[in-house]
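User: Sequence for SigE family RNA polymerase sigma factor below. Tokens please.
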Amino acid sequence: MARRDQAFAAYVAQRRPQLYRAAVLLCGDPHRAEDVVQAALTKLYVAWHRVERADSVDAYVRRSLVNSHLDEHRRPWRREVPDSDDVPDSSVPAAPVEDNDALFAALRELPVGQRRIVVLRHYWGLSVEETAADLGISAGTVKSQTSAALAALRTLLATEPSEGAH
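Assistant: Structure tokens for SigE family RNA polymerase sigma factor:
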């Protein structure tokens, strides 16, 4: 059991920063991202003995992260509108991509499904087939949703904010 815990702890220590950044991109909120990562890592720990032997730990964690985000997104209390005093700080921790406020804001404008595909394809660097397998959708859907998402991002990023806006 100790070796299992050591192997799991080593994996988490190596991958947790990347998982967190991906979750922030998926969720648009660092606090929710933390919850999503915790849920995914909990699922991983429970299945560690099986997943570790299967040469697919990263694929399992990616899929678990996306599914945990989907579970969080579906929770009824997420639909409640918080009081203005309860709104969490949505600033993103320093990281090269996430520091770009315009890109981060544009990603939040994408529909959840397209955001997941963009994160898996362009943040994780997965192929169309790997993304399709992780999300349980067809390769054609990945291609069409990627195209639509990138077109939307180009449009959103091309618009200049008005001079009075900050």
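Residues 1-77 form a domain with the Rna Polymerase Sigma Factor; Chain: A fold (CATH 1.10.1740).
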